[in-house]
Amino acid sequence: MGMSGLQIYKLLPKTNCKDCGFPTCLAFAMKLAAKQADLAACPHVSEESKTALAASAAPPMRLVTLGSGDTEVKVGNETEMFRHNKTFYNPVGVFLRVQDTQSTAEIEAAVAEAMGYQVERVGITLSLSGVAVENASGDKEAFVAAIKAAQAKANGKPFIIMTEDPAAAQAGLEAAGEKTLLYAATKDNWEEMVAVAKAAGASLAVYEPEGLTPLANLAENVKGAGIEDIVLDPGTRSMPDSLALFTQIRRLALTKNFLPLGYPTIAFPGEGAESPEEEAIIAGQHIAKYGGFVVLDHFDPAVAYILLTLRLNIYTDPQKPIQVSPGMYEIGDPGPDSPLLVTTNFSLTYFSVAGEVDGSGVSSWLLITDSEGMSVLTAWAAGNFDAETVAKGAKAFDVESKVSHRKIIIPGYVAVISGELEEEMPGWEILVGPREAVDIPSYLKLWQN
Ligand code: SF4
Predict the structure, then answer these.
(1) 214 and 359 share a domain?
(2) CATH of the domain at 52
(3) Does 290 lie in the same domain as 417?
(4) Which of 20, 36, 53 to mutate to test the pocket of ligand 1 (most atoms within 8 A of CB)?
(5) I want to staple 42 with a disulfide (CB 3.0 to 4.6 A). Which of 20, 91, 170, 319 is the partner?
(6) Pocket lining: 40 vs ligand 1, CB cutoff 6 Å
(7) What gap in Å lies between CA 419 and CA 426, rounded to an integer?
């Protein structure tokens, strides 16, 4: 458990010198206790106190990393209960489970389809995180063969190895390589599983369905035996029970600094579902609250798109909109006679407009202004997408050298700026385009005629 502000205060120099940026040592101690300050800000704290404070300064939820390089998956290290307070940092790892009772061909086909799936949204490529292989057969050789079959099609993505048999775990981890998650240690096998995970440099999930106190005790035992990277499975599978327990774990870790539960969780939505559709709904709940790893039993591109988009939305900082760089973009192969459209640099706006222009088949110029990442109406209301901004962007990116017709199409939502824009861009004709991006193709077809 983390220290209180007063406990921390007793370890500080108590000189109130203000070098940390706070008026008193007590104020600094209170901020440290709330995880809103860094101990390094006090240059006068003794080495002895630093050691004593280390536990209190540690993140309330451990960061667990699987795999390496481009396909690395980092989960945990969260500090917020609610995304609107600040942000969630490390997106949920979404895995697909295969079992060693499936044929090699079935495993290869399932893994190839799921791990090969990619979709682009707002300029970001979304894909599943990795593969879970379960030793459903109980046979060690079959387990290793299944892992190797999955590896051949996994595009280098990380693995979760699922067995409660230490011998199968050892063989499986040898096949899967470093930075794998071993699932799971239980109250009956944890000492052997710790030895296997330690030898392989693996993270270790702990499974304990008897309640949060036994789960915390098991995690403490595993940690005491030398495993730092722990993942929690409280054993709940239904929607309401999972929501309740995952929320309690998160709250105890983040708001009470209860370190024995300060780890990411793992969820198996298919085990609480009666259909793939219900599995998708439960998975969505875990992505929102508060899964660390979510292991699916079914892969469907339509469901994956929804879940990955949900994950992207939840793990995007609400205070920092995703933006594209202002500039003059070519959609297709535009020439001097091609239409010129203008919009804001909010990513969703840019990709919606660019997608519709591209789909229209009418090569066009797209002027993107610096509107601080806001959508059209928001930027207009905030004064970031007015006549002056558009004219400034047109000048900065030299639109006059690109088109010969002197016509610029503004979004229908800001028709109100057309008069002012005529004054800001003398000699230009201001055309009011559609309000919605979806209507751009039919509008551009008229341009062609
Ligand atoms: Fe106290 Fe250290 Fe801050 Fe100075 S820098 S006020 S000693 S906590």
Answers:
(1) no
(2) 1.10.15.40
(3) no
(4) 20
(5) 20
(6) no
(7) 11
Residue 21 Cβ inside 6 Å of ligand 1? The answer reads no
pLDDT in tens, 5-54: 898 999 999 999 999 999 999 999 988 887 778 888 999 999 888 888 87
Within 10 Å of residue 157's Cβ, how many Cβ atoms? 25
Using the mean position of ligand 1's atoms as its centre, give its distance from the Cα of residue 35 in Å. 16
Q: Whose structure tokens read 């499986």?
A: 172
Ligand 1 pocket, residue 61 CB under 6 Å: no
Going by alpha carbons, the residue nearest to atom 8 of ligand 1 is 25
pTM: 0.77
> Considering only CA atoms, which of 169, 166, 186 is closest in space to residue 234?
186
Same domain, 173 and 298: yes
Asked, as a colleague might, if the bond just before 413 is cis with ω within 30 of 0, I would say: no
Pair of tokens at residue 338:
């091609």
Of 389, 355, 339, nearest to 369 (Cα)? 389
Which residue's CA is minimally distant from atom 1 of ligand 1?
25
Taking only the tens place, the pLDDT of each residue in 291-347 is 999 999 999 999 999 999 999 999 988 777 788 889 999 999 999 999 999 999 998
> Atom of ligand 1 at shortest distance to CA of 21?
3
